[in-house]
Amino acid sequence: MGSPATFTLKANGASDVLKYTYQLNDNPVRTKTFTAATTSYAVSLAPDARGVNTLTVQTWDAASNGSLSYTYTFKVAPGAGPVAHWSLDEGTGTTATDSVSGRTATLAGSAGWSSLARLGKSLQANGTSSYAATGSSVLDTTKSFTISAWARLTGTSHNSVAVAQAGVNGSTFAIYYSTSYNAWIFNRYTTDVAAPTIVRSIGTTTPEVGVWTHVMGVYDAQEQTIQLFVNGVPQGDSVAYTTPWQGTGGLQIARGQYGSAFSDYFPGQVDEVTAWNRILSEDEIADLQAMTDAGTGQAQPALAADWKLEETSGTSAADSSGYGHTATVAGGGTWSTDTDGGKGNVLSLNGTSAANATATGPIVDSQGDFTVAAWAKLDTASLSDTTVAHHMRIATQSGGVRDSWGLWYYQAAGSAQGMWVFGRTTADVAGSGATVVTAPASIASAQLVDPGAWTLLTGVYDGAHHQLFLYVNGVRQGAQGDTDTDTDTGDGIVFTSPWQATGTFNIGRGRISNGTYSDFADGLVDDVRVWTGVVSDTDINQMYVNELPILL
Fold first, then answer.
1. What ranges do the domains of the chain cover?
2. H/E element, 286
3. Nearest-CA neighbor of 440 among 426, 421, 464, 459?
4. Are strands 436-439 and 455-462 parallel, antiparallel or unpaired?
5. Are 238 and 226 in contact (CB under 8 A)?
6. What's the fold here for domain 84-280?
7. Going by CATH, does the domain composed of 5-76 fall within 2.40.50.140?
């Protein structure tokens, strides 16, 4: 899989065929036209699906009469593993080991290690001189390849390269943050000269500092194109690139090369740098985004914020994740001891506009995989008026006008029963220009629980598959999705319009359609957490079992 093979398309006995059309799996239909009758045509294709693949072929004569189409079904083994991988988990010393081929990357220019990582440890770079580099080239850049890394920017004042491979005068490829475009870019130079022409695949999403983002570049030698992926999603259409050349220099982590000099040093952390000499399938890209463990098949999330809410005084709620997202408790929030419910010290919110705790955002890249969880126990007396609807927000990430996502309780007017939801808004605009999509989609598919009892709420956004999930007390709620394919996407609620929110992270409030903060929570909140990545069904259920309050 992902490696090219030669397929011979035949006219099936016809002597007047001038055109062949063919389609591999769900890829675009390709056409090859000849000036003279041609009885067969050999084409190089790279199967991009694990297991069953299909190649559909049709022929045409000079009068544009088409034959019946024929579909050839064949199986493909899993693609070859990476040719190099640097986990950057060493934590000490000045070398980073390639776990595949033993290529050592040497740290230099005050580069160090950080415990802020997508997985394990990461490379810490200062943005002015720090980098790690191998002594020789890693990829044959004249052929198809894929290069990926996790990057966490801490500044955007200059172009910042996450990973590149050097030539003599410039990088043969680079994945970097561009100040001019305010976007992630995967580029290739047309030639190895000091002032080359640059071909760019430009990100369509806005990068943010302080969050982990997965960036990946693909060169397709057959199609002669380059393509940037951000958080597992292709950024726009592929871009033509027709002059590949071999970069003979080393792989560069946290710097690039231009004008015969190294430059564009990365400020922040880089982690999990991986290279392949082929193109990856959609499933493999999704596994990269989730950091799926090959041995267990489980996703590996990284804790991005953890407010235990164990304080007993003051107006600050500590974040124990290591990222320093200290939350400020407003006047309507007080510290309380939940003696009856068994949760110990908790945050009590009184349902007023000052009933909240906020931290500077963003906490995670809202366009990629993430998970949010919180324990909540509402004051049921505040829900007793059934003549009006009730909304109470537990944890939300705000943008400039709307919330990008959040966990909340909704009780419709005329009903004495409500439901917990995990929701996302399609755009950061007021009024009817944005739609709210929730999991579950309706109360008919919700697990109805007592809002006055301690409840563990867990919302998951699977960015690679564009799916929303809500778990209540460790149980996935009723959902829908792509159930008609052989690929198990988890049957979540489909959401295809993620956007990066840069406002505050809120406990106990959220932005409504007119842009103001509202939906203030009345009750108790505890253990609010956010992860980069997807927390698995098994781990969510185990989290509930481990943390279930014991009545005192």
1. 5-76, 84-280, 302-547
2. helix 282-290
3. 421
4. unpaired
5. yes
6. Jelly Rolls (2.60.120)
7. no
